[in-house]
Amino acid sequence: MLWGVVQFPGSCDERDALRACSLLGEARLVWHEDRDLSGIDAVVIPGGFSYGDYLRGGAIARFSPVMEAVARFAAAGGPVLGICNGFQVLCEAGLLPGALLRNEELRFVCRQADLIPEGEANGHFATENVGQTTTRTLSIPVKHGEGRFYAPQEALDEIESRGQVAYRYAPGQNPNGSARDIAGVRNEIGNVLGLMPHPEHAVDPLTGSTDGLRIFEAVAGAREGGP
Amino acid sequence: MAKARVLIRPKEGILDPQGKAVEGALPALGFEGVGHVRVGRMVELEAEDPARLPELCEKLLANPLVEDYEIESIDGG
User: Fold this and answer.
1) B43 Cβ contact partners less than 8 Å away, ≥ 6 residues apart
2) Facing residue for B63 by CB, picked from A99, A148, A177
3) What pLDDT digit, counting tens, does each position of A46-105 carry?
4) Is A84 one of the catalytic residues?
5) In Å, what is the CA distance from A175 to each residue of A36, B39, B41?
6) What is the residue range of B39's domain?
7) Looking at residue B66, which CATH number applies to its domain?
8) Domain count, chain B
9) CB A223 within 8 A of CB A89
10) Tell me, what's the ipTM?
11) What range defines the domain where residue A158 resides?
12) What is the pTM of this model?
């Protein structure tokens, strides 16, 4: 399995993402000017500050050449994982619903958070294929200043009713004022996943948790079980 | 080239923590009685075809899900 990790000018988590992916297969960087994703089985859009986060997080990155290729890849059913700034890019690109706004308390938050996986039966990101205990929370770090998930009420109802909520912050742990404690969402088909917490920073016991691997494994499973 | 100014602000009803922080700082500076502070952004540009500005705003300058925008012509100003 070959992972492609997209690198924009201003990305900063691509090395950790590469390392996480390489625990589950081969991984290579994909430069933002590349349009060729041939041979790649899953795409990761890592965190950072693509194009300096000018205008809005992800607003400029979505127009980069590589994002055209990512959109085609996703349309063909390929699994795409957007982390933090990568989540913002996917929302700006219209591949995921909603928007990420400045944290409610205005502070940059950097801490460990418990995530509750949800809707395992929906889409390809089936964490139930990975762990025995599907309801176990995942301990994953968050670090962002603009991670407040927002969508209008009706859109939130649709997202929930279609089973597009992938992860919620555990009760009392919402770090940024996200609507309905939403930490991550998937697209309607279930092959595109975005989340604010950083699973790539939680793949080694050295940093306190290996729960992030489960999210990468779920993405890998999306390729194996997908179209 | 037509000069234009685009004003972008958070949509009504969307929490604006930046505005809240500015508002919260004002009393400490002796500015009482100022409320409902909203912080947006302003973009000045020159366009050959001003008719295309709304599209440009929708696609890039503003996120229509969370922001409103206004285009002002500043020609002859």
Assistant:
1) B5, B6, B8, B61
2) A99
3) 999 999 999 999 999 999 999 999 999 999 999 999 999 999 999 999 999 999 999 999
4) yes
5) 37, 22, 26
6) 2-73
7) 3.30.1280.10
8) 1
9) no
10) 0.86
11) 2-225
12) 0.91
